[in-house]
Hints:
By secondary structure, the chain is of the alpha+beta class. It has a single domain, classed as Gcn5-related N-acetyltransferase (GNAT) (Aminopeptidase, 3-Layer(aba) Sandwich), CATH 3.40.630. The chain is built from six helices and eight strands; from the N terminus they run E-E-H-H-H-E-E-H-E-H-E-H-E-E. Strands 1-2-3-4-5-6-8-7 form an eight-stranded mixed β-sheet, sandwiched between helices. The radius of gyration is 16 Å and the shape is globular. The two termini are about 30 Å apart.
Amino acid sequence: MLFQNGKLKVRKLKETDKYLLAKWLSDPSVLEFYEGRDNPFDVDKVNKVFYASEEDEIKCIVEFEGNEIGYIQFYQLDDKIKKEYGYLDENIYGTDQFIGEIEYWNKGIGTFLVTSMVKYLVEHKQADRVVMDPQTRNTRALKCYEKCGFKRIKILPKHEFHEGEYQDCWLIEYTPHHA
């Protein structure tokens, strides 16, 4: 387990989680903002994207009250991305997440997950900032992230190819208040 905060647990991805990811990433409600409804996943695609990838993300499953409900990944931004976003030599982490079990939506669990992950990154990875790049049209996610202390920094025009067209995204950041 990576960390626990009350009823919320975040643990690293296991081989058997591929079936959960395939279930969640074939649900049009989940895909509307994560990967795209025109891009459903089966187990083979999950294996290629989540298990065969050489990328440096730490991929995790989210559990709430003992139930596996979602996915979160975090990663340290490389110099190329930091430059693209306008950052200097800081320790910056990014996250991506979704709640795959839609009956857990709109219950404050996403806010609890994001605040818990930010706390983990600041305390255990010494993150100077935590950033995300949600699509500008994803108002529900943006409200969640703003409740967690993220601020909108700038629009990233045509940043993400989603459902056949490039979408504008917000660069949002959380900056911890150092004493």
